[in-house]
Write a structure and sequence with these properties.
About 45% of the residues lie in helices and about 10% in strands. By secondary structure, the protein is of the alpha/beta class. Helix 7 (about 120-130) packs parallel to helix 18, helix 15 (about 280-290) packs parallel to helix 16 and helix 17 (about 340-345) packs across helix 18.
């Protein structure tokens, strides 16, 4: 039977037309095209100099640890339950007595004003706006007191490298505590700096030095360079006066003699909770639990220290089984989706620290890019919880996830 033809009816055609006036807000247009956090990577690579992008993107040596971490996330397989009431999803978790909106903490990242001139202050403001926690790095480009004054009432943690000069260490710790930082994160996986081939080849320094190669780069990234040259000098806020390659600065700051006795000593100079970041073995996790540390972060430093080290997502359930009933276990290292976060919670993590994810956002679009990263994570976490049949974080159990063999 042939279809009967008729003249088009405008009443049915007009609702199908989805035209809109062109926007002259380039950033708004750019953000409207971002669906996944991975979408920010390509944009970021166009916005900043190669040395800056490589610092965020790269890892140590041959970057095997980076590749293995990515592979582990690809091997995650969820085990959903159906016919569950997921009409109301609660993504919040309680961290040291106060709730945050999702189990995500902004990890400490060095040199944030190098990625975007708004730097640590912009990231902390987004964290505060979304009821999240921001960790300031010792290697940051904003000092603890400057951040506290700029973003009052934000939940701030301070990441710390115990330096060779213990008196200087004490002064830095007291400075953070005086300005309201509630948790001290001691990073312990840097007795020496990892061999970061990209940074060495690029000759990365803080601030960037202007040579012939840099001049060519300036021509390709004029907006980034304009912001750099017309805002406050780019420097290590906690180490003003240093102007050397990163590897040489790290050698002066990192203390290769750091041991368990130093962690006990920290109790005498810091009155709040202490988290040890950079744990990569069950035995170390057990020792730290025995000396009374409140929490640990399982971390391979984003694959930027020891290459070919353990895959943190594989290590997580084993550590939780041994010490999870005694201390909180956090995790970081390449988490780029809300599904990754839910998987970590199912494996027993208290929360996930993200670093590269928000750095891609700030490189691409400043603070609006960081907000978009949060929006994406909130949506993906909620969506994943609904699809596996859980309505709250406490309902996410080990039986909801596994790592496939291949």
């Amino acid at each position: 039977m042939k279809s009967r033809r008729q003249f088009p009816d405008l009443r049915f055609i007009l609702p199908l037309i989805n035209w809109s006036l062109p926007t002259f807000n380039n950033k708004k247009s750019l953000l409207s095209k971002v669906v996944l956090i991975h979408d920010f990577k390509k944009i970021a690579s166009r916005k900043v100099p190669k040395a800056v992008y490589d610092y965020v993107e790269g890892g140590a040596h041959q970057e095997v640890s980076l590749k293995r971490s990515v592979d582990a996330f690809l091997r995650v397989e969820f085990q959903p339950n159906v016919l569950r009431d997921i009409s109301k999803i609660d993504t919040s978790v309680e961290i040291f007595g106060e709730k945050i909106s999702i189990p995500v903490i902004f990890a400490p990242t060095g040199y944030t004003r190098m990625m975007h001139h708004s730097g640590e202050i912009a990231v902390a403001e987004i964290a505060k706006r979304n009821n999240l926690i921001y960790c300031l790095s010792t290697m940051g480009t904003t000092a603890p007191d400057e951040l506290s004054l700029a973003v009052p009432d934000a939940r701030l943690w301070f990441q710390f490298y115990l330096m060779k000069d213990r008196q200087a260490s004490v002064k830095m710790i007291e400075r953070a505590q005086k300005h309201g930082f509630e948790v001290l994160i001691l990073t312990v996986d840097t007795p020496v700096s990892g061999i970061r081939a990209r940074d060495i080849r690029n000759g990365l320094t803080i601030p960037p030095r202007i040579g012939i190669k840099t001049l060519f780069d300036m021509a390709k990234k004029p907006h980034w360079w304009l912001n750099l040259l017309t805002t406050a000098p780019l420097e290590f806020a906690a180490f003003r006066g240093y102007n050397e390659p990163l590897s040489q600065i790290a050698a002066k700051i990192y203390d290769s003699s750091l041991n368990y006795e130093d962690i006990t000593w920290l109790r005498t100079v810091w009155s709040g909770p202490i988290i040890v970041k950079g744990v990569q073995s069950i035995s170390d996790a057990e020792k730290l639990a025995n000396i009374g540390i409140e929490a640990i972060v399982l971390s391979n430093h984003g694959g930027r220290q020891l290459d070919k080290g353990p895959v943190i997502l594989e290590l997580l359930p084993k550590v939780v089984e041994k010490v999870g009933h005694r201390i909180d276990v956090y995790v970081d290292g390449g988490f780029m989706t809300g599904q990754d976060v839910v998987a970590a919670i199912a494996f027993g993590a208290k929360a996930v620290l993200i670093g590269r994810a928000y750095l891609y956002g700030i490189m691409a679009a400043g603070s609006e890019g960081v907000q978009k990263v949060v929006d994406i994570l909130v949506s993906e976490i909620s969506n994943t919880m609904a699809l596996i049949g859980v309505a709250s974080m406490s309902e996410i159990k080990p039986e909801h996830v596994k790592l496939r063999n291949s």
